Known about the structure:
The chain is of the alpha/beta class.
Amino acid sequence: MRDLFDDLDDAPEPPPRPDRPHPALGDTAALLALLERWVARGWLRALDRALVVFLQREVPDASAPLLLAAALASHQLGRGHVCLDLATTLAAPDLALSLPPEGDDLSDPPPLPSQVLDGLTLGEWEQALAHPGLVADGDQGAPGHTPLVRGATAPGHQHQGPRLYLRRYWQYEQDIRQQITARLNSATCGNTAPCGSTAPPRDGADRRPDDATSTSDGRRPDNATDTATLAAALDALFPTTETIDWQQAACALAARSPFAVITGGPGTGKTTTVVKLLALLQALQLGQEDRHALRIRLAAPTGKAAARLNDSIAKQVKGLSLVELASAVGQQGVDISTLRDSIPTEVTTLHRLLGSRPDTRHFRHHAGNPLALDVLVIDEASMVDIEMMAAVLTALPPRARLVLLGDKDQLASVEAGAVLGDLCQRAEGGHYTRQTAEWLEAVTGAPLPADYRDDYHGTPGQPLDQAIAMLRVSHRFDAASGIGQLAEAVNRPLDAGHTAKEKRRAVRQVLEHTPAYADLARLRLADADDPALDRLVVDGAPVGFPNSGQGRRDPRGEPLAPPTGYRHYLEVLRDQRPTDTSFGEAGGEERAPFDAWARAVLEAHGRFQLLCALRRGPWGIDGLNPRIGQALRRARLIAASDHELESGWFEGRPVLVTRNDYGLGLMNGDIGITLALPDDREPGRRLLRIAFPASDGSGQIKWVLPSRLQAVETVFAMTVHKSQGSEFTHTALLLPDAPNPILTRELVYTGITRARDWLTLVETGRGMLDEAVTREVMRVSGLGKL
Ligand SMILES: Nc1ncnc2c1ncn2[C@@H]1O[C@H](COP(=O)(O)OP(=O)(O)OP(=O)(O)O)[C@@H](O)[C@H]1O
């Protein structure tokens, strides 16, 4: 039998080189005409072309290749990349730029980027960028006010080619680099808990002791603690192990550095570790005479992620045993209830933390009005884009700690920037120096395995490497979990020892494992009308799982409910509807039954979600949403006309917020469910409102009128990009039937790891999974090695 994977290994023939450059490279009028065609076709944003028109008007002698680079840099921003990498773009223009975009029918297309750029050499393009009126040199600190900046060669990234930035994004990257470097430089390796930064405030001001850079007791949080105390405290928090306990090592590394990253896959214990870290920091602080507790804040990029962390942190803090820790620090020990009360459980969104203001991208907190805190923990940091990360770092008091938590391998934010992924490029290998290794052994009692040391890799460990810890053992998915095995097989990067062919085989082995994994089902659809899709979205297609999903237990031995589809939340909606005749517009007691109902529906909605890669076409959200709506209507679970399914409102409609709405307090990524409520003004009539969980994790319900929602979409099908930070009991991941640059290992890994208990992998064409898992997201940035 022909191997399904063989054809993927055949490289396409390179096209012949043209005799002369494309006209759009020689003449700005031709370039503008080409950009016009690209915009009309939906290949570029109108904004990208408008930038070129503006630049050309301001600087008429700008050459066409320079203006094209500006348009493409702007286009890349819209796709999440902070800059344009010239060499990568020239090497494979259509792939690097993802053009034509998904869903384009390819009939009578305008010239492709590969046709336009063919014949242009890197040297010629670089030369075209040497225009001091438009492009500043990042190596020189980008003097002047040019709209564009040529990226500096990042130290340690000599292989990185020339990059073109829009100045604002170059500046964000600089701000992040400077702020992190200042914190890393102030970490006195070998010492413990040296939070006191020696860096002056960014604004150069000589602040008073009671300002935001001090702890709440007016002192600097420079609780330098000796190694023995830290070792005793870690010993109190973690069981003794012969080999390295990565959670303990992460806690130790994060305790000694004012900037720290804890990364790890799903269920590797990021939350567990950070709760212990906070207990440790507070114990060390309170263990010193006359010290008040540190002011700690917890934040996440979306309301949903904040609510999730809120729940898990509250549980973990409650279950934390603090007796030994309290007596391990300080002469007198620490009062246990004071210590427990000093560990916060409330998680806020980053927007709320920084003080977002309606109708402006500026926040209330910034360098001139820093946040009043000593420690900031950001969960789901992979979702934080470059602009937000720069805003956070700029608003952080110079002496405050920052701890980033997240999964470095997840897809990055939909907005530009992949800060966590960039920072964690070397996390896998550790790259700890001898000094760090010896210190870690001294405080944890276990030796660091040689392959995580820098001398093993033959390159010196950088300060950033010493501040990053990767958790490597999943406590949620054990060896018997197909979800865990599949995630691991998909996530393993390609390298010399792991070829594309081997990787595909490893993925296939998980899918075809005998006996079949209890939490993994596979579904093949013939076409978009295949009734198997109805069975999946309505009832969850439990028959696809061994024993139809019956009789499974969770790691604690509790019985697990079999997988469900959307029927579950729609039945909760129907069966638990309050009988009260008044909604209670003014709030208060009257509304309580409706709030409880909405909470139950939202909770039930989290039991199943269909994820897909694309937006357009029959296998994108545009095709799937009405298609699923019709299936639910046939099952009599919703009542909606075709028109309402396409673009209207109906009870049961789940919606996803696609743009932050500061006025309503709704954030991009929030999910609400449309419910029918009694209309208090007209008894007997019903009024549709969308119930959203409050973004502060308080469990409150926010009721919003449909007409007030500016940017929402139906979310029977959700893109994997939008699913980041969420988790669903049963996740169905649907892959399209044709190759697409958007299909990458990061996307598949992110989709798989949204599943908590059940995963159905839905395939609509042959070979797409194999293709996806061997394609990696190209990350281009100047962050990475600090
Ligand atoms: N060292 C450990 N030993 C046993 N169980 C653990 C350990 N660490 C974490 N767990 C358990 O594993 C589960 C996942 O832990 P946790 O929520 O801390 O992981 P996470 O990395 O934050 O997960 P997520 O992927 O949801 O962000 C929890 O039930 C937790 O109690």
